[in-house]
Design goal:
By secondary structure, the protein is of the alpha/beta class. 36% of the residues lie in helices and 16% in strands.
């Protein structure tokens, strides 16, 4: 499966999460996204999406906001603690998506993901509570991220 992974603000390309997906046998597209210019980061992600046609888009934190603002048709989304209230204009989520978020997240409130799901009129199963912090880089959240990609892709 081809996965477009959109990293968070001041995160690195090739971090724990995209490496986990790659190690599970998937092709992972992991472009460097500008930290200072949201529109430039969005254009970079859109260019990769348009050129590569991934099966699934994974967005972590600010990368989740980018994923929500992409023109991505029916391509499924897996969002990790999406920072949708901080960047972009999207306020709803498409039906073929999952949001993973830790209730203990001290960067992006868990309530933001609950609000996104409510705005989108999606079922409670769309939001998966997992992990112990914002990074979601422990074994359980990594496995849940991979499982969501496989389920939706």
């Amino acid at each position: 499966m081809k996965i477009l992974f959109l990293h968070g603000w001041h995160s690195v390309v090739g971090g724990v999460k995209p490496t986990y997906l790659k190690d599970a046998g998937h092709e992972v597209l992991n472009p460097a996204l500008d930290d200072d210019d949201f529109e430039l980061a969005l254009r970079t992600a859109q260019d990769v999406y348009d050129r590569e046609h991934p099966d699934v888009i994974v967005g972590s934190s600010r990368g989740g906001a980018i994923a929500l603002n992409l023109s991505s048709g029916e391509t499924p989304l897996v969002l990790l603690c999406p920072a949708w209230k901080n960047w972009g204009t999207a306020t709803t989520l498409k039906p073929n998506a999952r949001v993973l978020h830790s209730r203990a997240d001290d960067v992006i409130p868990f309530a933001d993901s609950e609000e996104l799901i409510a705005n989108s009129q999606l079922g409670a199963e769309t939001l998966i509570e997992v992990g112990t912090d914002h990074r979601l880089a422990e074994p359980e959240p990594l496995w849940v991220m991979l499982s969501a990609c496989v389920e939706l892709g």
